[in-house]
Specification:
Structural class: alpha/beta
InterPro entries: ADH-like_C, ADH-like_N, ER, GroES-like_sf, NAD(P)-bd_dom_sf, Quinone_OxRdtase_PIG3
Bound molecules: NADP nicotinamide-adenine-dinucleotide phosphate
Radius of gyration: 19 Å
Strand content: 25-35%
Number of helices: 9
Organism: Gordonia alkanivorans CGMCC 6845
Number of strands: 15
CATH superfamily of the largest domain: Medium-chain alcohol dehydrogenases, catalytic domain
Keywords: NADP, Oxidoreductase
CATH topology of the largest domain: Quinone Oxidoreductase, Chain A, domain 1
Pfam families: ADH_N (PF08240), ADH_zinc_N (PF00107)
GO molecular function, one term: NADPH binding
Largest sheet: 7 strands, mixed
Helix content: 25-40%
Order of helices and strands: EEEHEEEEHEHEHEHEHEHEHEHE
């Protein structure tokens, strides 16, 4: 099969051996693959795949099942699916544990389905199962126009929460409003912590910045607020204002999806099942939609990375396999 191979940070299409399904795995003939920031980090040598995972880039795909390993039940050859991967998505075929495979929600086309696994599993697990956002609460989402941000906004809005977002331009904030955000903050101009305080404080913050925002995030939280950090774009080391943490009874949490085991508490099987139960009915009801900014052919993966790096994308960037 063809796959994207990384050599000294250059990406090229090469012939590599087809994957065969181990026990408990299925093989998917890939139709589309999501592009994630993690892929760009891995390409630069800064985010190695977890032990045992494919060296090929790519954390999510959509496509059709073409082979079943032993001990797989519930799936058949020809099923149209999307899947969460530990790696291997930038290819014509990928093997994946059956528990990480999801039906394509009714009403979603097969290419757009590749925009769902990473954002849906990340947002559902962090915002709801980890930070326990509930109806009527206020969620602050940093990077509201990102793939994660556009999905988190729609899901939280559909679940009856209020949403505040940060973004860099008015055009991005306008799109966030369309997805259900009501407090729109241009972080290049405005002090998000002050705006949140003026609105009673955030009950939950979904943060992708890390160190640079830690202190302001703590200020922006209301009493009993929960900060869940899923990205480190603004660095990894910062001082924690412990006085405020105690006074406001705050929780600070961090998670990553890729490194989770397949099975066991908090494993990918559990995350995928909970995500499908929570989010798929809302997608099928038209309350949450995949947000695809642009698609590129698999061979143009480098151009897709450049586009994600440009900061111009709103929602997800995808690769398509002809
Ligand atoms: N822990 C996990 O399991 C997990 C899983 C998936 C993704 N993630 C993380 O989630 C983040 C989003 O990923 P993605 O693939 O959806 O999109 P992405 O393209 O990585 O999005 C980056 C976002 O960061 C925003 N941003 C940059 N500087 C900012 C600042 N100072 N304040 C607020 N926003 C800022 C950008 O918006 P502007 O253009 O408006 O600046 C852009 O929307 C990434 O950091 C990724 O690593 C984590």
């Amino acid at each position: 099969m063809k796959a994207i191979v990384v050599e000294s940070e250059n990406l090229s299409v090469q012939d590599v051996p087809d994957p065969s399904p181990a026990a408990g795995e299925v093989v998917i003939d890939v139709v589309a693959a999501g592009v994630n920031r993690a892929d760009i980090l891995q390409r630069a040598g800064n985010y190695p795949p977890p032990p045992g995972a494919s060296e090929t880039l790519g954390l999510e795909v959509s496509g059709r099942i073409s082979a079943l390993g032993d001990q797989v039940s519930g799936w058949a050859v020809g099923d149209e699916v999307c899947a969460l991967l530990a790696g291997g998505g930038y290819a014509e075929k990928v093997a994946v544990p059956a528990e990480q495979v999801m039906q394509v929600p009714r009403g979603v086309d097969l290419v757009s389905a590749a925009a769902l696994p990473e954002v849906a599993c990340t947002v559902s697990s962090n915002v709801f199962d980890t930070a326990h956002l509930s109806t009527g609460e206020l969620l602050l989402i940093h990077g509201g126009s990102s793939g994660i941000g556009t999905h988190a906004t729609q899901l939280a809005h559909a679940m009856g929460a209020r949403v505040a977002v940060t973004a860099r331009t008015q055009a991005k904030l306008d799109r966030c409003r369309e997805y259900g955000a009501e407090i729109l903050i241009d972080y290049t101009r405005d002090d998000f912590a002050q705006i949140l305080k003026d609105n009673g404080g955030a009950d939950v913050i979904l943060d992708i910045i890390g160190a640079k925002y830690l202190s302001s995030n703590i200020k922006a939280l209301s009493t009993d607020g929960r900060l869940v950090i899923i990205g480190m774009q603004g660095g990894t080391k910062a001082e924690l204002p412990i006085g405020l943490l105690l006074a406001k009874r705050l929780s600070v949490m961090g998670t990553t999806l890729r490194a989770r085991p397949v099975h066991g508490p908090g494993g990918k099987a559990e995350v995928v099942a909970a995500t499908m139960a929570r989010t798929w009915p809302l997608i099928e009801a038209g309350k949450v939609e995949p947000v695809v900014d642009r698609t590129f052919p698999l061979a143009d993966a480098a151009a897709a990375h450049d586009h994600l790096n440009s900061g111009d994308a709103i929602g997800k960037v995808l690769l398509t396999v002809e």
